[in-house]
Structures are given as C-alpha cells and as structure tokens.
C-alpha cells in the first residue's frame, strides 16, 4: 500500500462559519429593526403627548387671560363702590353735622326763651 496523505476539506467548515455569521447578522439586524420600530413608536407617542400638552397650555393661557380681564373689571367695580360708599359717608356726616348744629341752635333758643 502506498502512503496516503489526508487532506481536510475546509470548505464545509468555512461555509458553516459563514452561515453562522449570516444568521447572527440577520438576528442582529432583526433586533435593530425591532428597536427602531419601538423607538419610532415612542417618538410618535411623545409627539402626541407634546401636542396634548401644548393644547392644555393654550387653554390655560386663554383661561388666565379671561380671569385677568374679570379681575380688572371687579377691581374697577370695587373702586367705584368704595367711592360711592365714601361719598355716602361724607353725605351722612354732613347731614349729622347739620342736624347737630340745628339741634344746638334749637336748644340754645329754647334756653333763651325760658329766661
């Protein structure tokens, strides 16, 4: 028998290794695509939440503006009421002063007529 040299066939190993790498790359690609999809969904959700927040802010600003107008009107009304109340107090004080003066004059006349 003649000596034989055994030569290993490396092609099946290289092919198997390439298939494993391809599988790993496919799995990684699928994982990245899932993460990208989730990221886009989160981004869309955040946009919707931001839009809702902007809408709430707009409503709050409009409410604040209405309240400021109402407050201004109430302040003006209270100033007018305070002025009217002050005028009424002055009028009543004047009437009381005149009544006291008239009463004093009448008392003085009465005391003079008794004499």
UniProtKB/TrEMBL annotation:
Pfam families from the xrefs?
Answer: LSU (PF24980)
> Which segments of the protein form a coiled coil according to its record?
none
Question: Sorted alphabetically, which InterPro entries does this protein's record hold?
Answer: LSU
Region (Disordered) spans which residues? 1-26
Domain of life of the organism in this record? Eukaryota
Which residues fall in a compositionally biased region of kind Basic and acidic residues? 16-26
GO BP annotation list: cellular oxidant detoxification
* Name listed for the protein in its UniProt record: Microtubule-associated protein, MAP65/Ase1/PRC1
